Amino acid sequence: MTVVAFAEKNKAAAQIASILGDGEVDKISVEGLPAYEFKWKGEEWFVMGLSGHIMSYDFPEKYNKWNEVDPGVLLGIYPEKFVTRAEYAAAVKNLAKRADKIILACDYDREGENIGFEAKTLSEEVTNVPISRARFSALSPKEVKKAFENPVEPDYNMAMAAEARQILDLKMGAAFTRFVTLSVREKARTKDILSIGPCQTPTCGFVYEREKIIRAFETKDFWKITAIFVAKGGEFEGIHRAGNIYEKEKAVEIFKRLKGAKEGLVVKKTVKEAKTSPPNPLNTTEYLKRASKFLGISPEAALEVAEQLYLAGFTSYPRTETNKYADDFDFKSLVFDFARQTEYKPFAESILSAPIVPKNGEKDAHDHPPIHPIRAAARREISAAVNIPQAAEAYDLIARHFLANLMPAAVFEKTHLQLHVKEEPFDSSGTVLKDAGWLEVYPFENKKDKLLPFVEEKEKVDIKKLSNTKSKTSPPKKLTEAELLTLMDKHGIGTKATAPSHIETNKKRGYFETKGKTVSILDTGFTLMEGLSLTVPILIRPDIRSKIEALIQEVEDGKKEFEAALDEGTALIKEMYAQLEANKKELTSSIAGTIKDEAALEDKKNYIGTCKVCGHVLKIVQTDTGRFVGCSGYPDCRNSFPLPKTGALNVLRSKECKKEGAAVLKVGNKYNWAVGIGPCFKCDLEKECYPPETVGPCPECDGSMFLISFKDSRFLGCTKRCGYTHSVPKTGKLTLLDKTCGTCGWKLFRLKEEGDSPEEDFCVNRRCTEGIKYWRKTGPRNESRGQAKASGDSVSRPEAGSTARSTARSTARPTPCKVSKGPSITGERKEDRGK
DNA sequence: GCAAGGTC
């Protein structure tokens, strides 16, 4: 007699073989895959692990051309099931041919049943031997032996429920994803896929809803009146009973009444005992939440760690909804085991010193026990066996959580004081941990005391300080991953095993991101959710998942035929699809805008800023006929601005236009241009945007002298335009230094003439003895004066229909200037030639 | 190329 068993995965198969074969197991290879051969109860056994699902649904080939098939058509197609892991299928058939009896031994849940049926389907292609099912919820010798000694009938309904889910999820996901992606691509160029799914979309919906609340939040000012009291035993704080006071006048009034108060009276003291029970036993979601909150491990990583701890035999099956220990759970021998492990010894001993009463939750899904340790192990033992960094920490959390479940409640003493200050009521409270109970073994929870000094009723206490503090109400915080998991669990989004992957999908699609433990929505996610909430609101809410889940649960319970559930589910999806189609425009326009904005933001060279008309992105647009600044919201928004026709354009990010031009551009190496305003040198605010680098005070008025450079001349002019000018060396490279002249206070210049002549630093001021020295030395060679010369510049205009408001004018402009970018000066000037 | 569910 040969028995063949199929487990869900290789490691489970190995564990089963080692339990049933009692250590005497041969590892063999079937079609290149590992399997295990042994003898049990006189029979020849083969156990092989699958790799989860080895089959999958998809649409027939001809429906895979996105551009040729209307997505709605997919809803009427029955997808095909095919083998995704050919090597596994071959191995299953190979073993099935040798079998006199086949046992499905996958995980004990809906998907496990379905995976077993995949092996059953494949086996039935080559044999017709009896196929039964072994059900066990822990890979412990006791559970496994019991399950294989008493195999049962495979559960057809359970397997078909999973089948219905697969088909409905595929239909909905494929049709909606293609529809949204293709519709958006009609408006914005993108290769990205905008996916929709019955789990991923409501998951994003939770993040969106929180973001909406945060954005709509209006902060309010409030005042709080506090006192610091001094008793014999020390200081403590009291808060006026009015708490957060939202009217300023009221706070001022109370505070006025308190003015000059030197002491307070303790009118009442109450001491209460409060108990905090241990947390409920760990089911998957609770474990993932705590791993994120206490250990900072992402849900996805935490699940992987738990899986490995389970496969290595340290902890129980990690995918469970149950948070209630079975009535016959053998706590005692497990705790005894922990009593031998140094790290946990004291807690285990205290548990064993009294009758064991476990803390239990309410949920019993009859699937697996709560996640608990299978045996006590030291950190190094875990690290050696499971090669994942956080394995030891995760085991420690699971072990301590289990021990905490068996320990007494923590006892706190809470003291509350009522005080009067000039008849105004104040409250003060403190907490002291009297008996740590389970908190002893559970260092993750905060158990800080807030101490109060000892005071008695009727005691008078001094006042050290009275304050009336203004604060602001703050918006709700962003969701944490732990909170998101709670919401998903509460609304039945995904299974305990897949919740982390739905979070990952949303991140991959660019819908939201996680920073540390918090989750923040991204623009694409926000606009997509907004679009869906206006067209098919049910999609972003958990309802969509619960409707499908309810249908397939009926199949599992045998209350509904598989075909009927499929029809009903498809009808529901078709209805939603019709709504989506009818509102295509509303749905896609804002998403397309966001995608275009994101592309424009990425294009750093052409990015200008935000459009004041529509809020989208302004960018430099280059066409065959010219260039201009346009809005990414085009054609809905036609806001645009002209640009000069020639010269390379560079956006000066650090410059700000005082006339509210959208941005400042450098044109070639020549001049600056404010988008929407025109050339900066034509602007009356130019000096505010480009304050001149002054040389020193003007000797004629209270202005300052600064360097003015034209194409073929340069001189110093006065910022107040008093008419006083001053010559500078005509040739050579002039640099204004930070050093000043000790005699007159003007800044020194440095001159580098052409050729080999050395650089020299000097004062240029003719009214200064130092300056006179310089001019005497250089002689008459610099005695020319500059001439402003006009040159033209033309500007390209955007296409017709634009709302350009700046116009181009032919105008004079300065040439590049090596020293300072001084503004042009027109009008008379008188040259000072010294006296 | 699309979903969610397994597992690696």
TrEMBL record:
Its EC number is 5.6.2.1. This is DNA topoisomerase. Belongs to the type IA topoisomerase family. Residues 155-577 form the Topo IA-type catalytic domain. Its cofactor is Mg(2+). One of its GO terms (biological process) is DNA repair. It comes from Methanosarcina lacustris Z-7289. Residues 779-835 are annotated as: Disordered.
